[in-house]
């Protein structure tokens, strides 16, 4: 990806993805697959859209032929994003727009005109969202639907050079957003105001730096985002914001990420306002050691479960297993969480090109939570941390005067 290229996946790469999926259909004895998940549709076509109650579906044949089911209101949007693909199959509106036909019956009629064969799908019908109700695809076709979710998502596990470049750029802006936020945190500062203000400033910086190379892929959210929660609330892994000011002695658990070409990064840090207590320093060091163990363990050829086992052994050696609330990490890319997971029951073999978060946490009830998270790329000979924000305690202290 050159310095002047638009920061997005090319049409040629989308075509390659569809070609690989078509080959997997052939290898599995499947004639076609229906793809309902919005992120999977975007992964295979480059069509990014606001997912609502109106069904959108991609039908891909074993020969690589594409049919897209869309509400009429998305047809022009689709043509703008995907001029290389055939015109869509449309319906007037959900649940029918006066046609007397549910949108999925339009899809089923199309499938019935195709040559007979086994049909797969990532879901047996459109996902229930925004009030949607509709029949199962299997019921409409009168035949079983093969679970084809893994056919697509296994392709998504290993990132291409273009995907890695986008995530690397997203990490750069996640790091920047975190720095803007950290510099703005002072005693008395409101969590919400600082978090949103820093996200907006970092987004301004990103847009100024990248110009028209930056291509938004969503209607909502900002390209650069950061936030934090504080105090004993951090003992909850997914604690909510408080409408309160930061106080000396507070522990902060932060999050920051960029979104570039639809791809996300992940960065989290544990911070302290003022001089840390001995208890804080002890738990911080334990958390950092656990993350170090995860970074050292992530290697091609190992399994996700083996990485988690190494991290758990590190924590168990400190007698702190009772403070663990979640697994060590997860893959991500177009979504904040993707398959596979660094978990004792996930035996997926790790391969070069996979990208994971490494984020073991320790949660001390009544005191605080302790968690760093970094974006890490698996390479041929090890692992590379793509989020480069400081991890050491002196760099993560908020001065009180």
Automatic annotation (TrEMBL):
It comes from the Bacteria. SUPFAM superfamilies: Creatinase/aminopeptidase, Creatinase/prolidase N-terminal domain. InterPro entries: Creatin/AminoP/Spt16_N, Creatinase/aminopeptidase-like, Creatinase_N, Pept_M24, Peptidase_M24B. Residues 17-158 form the Creatinase N-terminal domain. Keywords: Aminopeptidase, Hydrolase, Protease. Residues 166-380 form the Peptidase M24 domain. Pfam families: Creatinase_N (PF01321), Peptidase_M24 (PF00557). Gene3D superfamilies: Creatinase/methionine aminopeptidase superfamily, Creatinase/prolidase N-terminal domain. GO terms for molecular function: aminopeptidase activity. This is Xaa-Pro aminopeptidase.
């Amino acid at each position: 990806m050159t310095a002047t290229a638009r920061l997005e996946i090319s049409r040629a790469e989308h075509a390659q993805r569809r070609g690989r999926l078509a080959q997997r259909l052939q290898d599995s004895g499947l004639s076609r697959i229906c793809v309902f998940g919005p992120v999977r549709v975007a992964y295979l076509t480059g069509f990014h859209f606001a997912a609502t109650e109106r069904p959108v579906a991609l039908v891909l044949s074993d020969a690589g032929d594409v049919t897209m089911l869309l509400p009429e209101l998305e047809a022009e949007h689709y043509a703008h994003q995907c001029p290389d693909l055939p015109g869509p199959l449309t319906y007037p509106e959900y649940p029918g727009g006066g046609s007397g036909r549910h949108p999925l019956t339009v899809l089923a009629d199309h499938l019935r005109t195709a040559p007979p064969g086994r049909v797969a799908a990532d879901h047996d019908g459109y996902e229930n969202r925004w009030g949607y109700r509709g029949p199962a695809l299997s019921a409409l076709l009168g035949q079983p639907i093969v679970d084809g979710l893994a056919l697509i998502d296994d392709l998504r596990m290993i990132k291409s050079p273009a995907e890695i470049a986008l995530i690397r750029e997203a990490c750069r802006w996640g790091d920047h957003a975190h720095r803007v936020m950290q510099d703005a945190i002072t005693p008395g500062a409101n969590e919400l105001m600082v978090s949103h203000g820093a996200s907006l400033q970092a987004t301004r910086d990103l847009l100024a730096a990248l110009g028209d190379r930056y291509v938004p892929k969503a209607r909502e959210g900002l390209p650069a985002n950061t936030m934090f929660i504080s105090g004993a609330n951090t003992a909850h892994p997914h604690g909510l914001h408080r409408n309160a000011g930061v106080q000396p002695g507070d522990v902060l658990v932060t999050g920051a990420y960029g979104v570039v070409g639809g791809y996300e990064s992940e960065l989290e840090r544990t911070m302290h306002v003022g001089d840390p207590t001995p208890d804080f320093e002890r738990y911080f060091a334990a958390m950092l050691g656990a993350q170090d163990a995860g970074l050292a363990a992530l290697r091609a050829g190992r399994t996700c479960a083996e990485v988690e086992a190494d991290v758990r052994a590190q924590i168990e050696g400190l007698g702190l297993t009772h403070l663990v609330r979640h697994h060590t990490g997860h893959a991500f890319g177009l979504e904040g969480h993707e398959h596979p997971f660094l978990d004792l029951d996930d035996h997926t073999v790790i391969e070069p090109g996979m990208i994971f978060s490494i984020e073991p946490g320790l949660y001390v009830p009544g005191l605080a939570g302790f968690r760093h998270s970094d974006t890490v790329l698996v390479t041929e000979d090890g692992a590379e941390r793509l989020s480069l924000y400081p991890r050491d305690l002196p760099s993560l202290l908020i001065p009180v005067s």
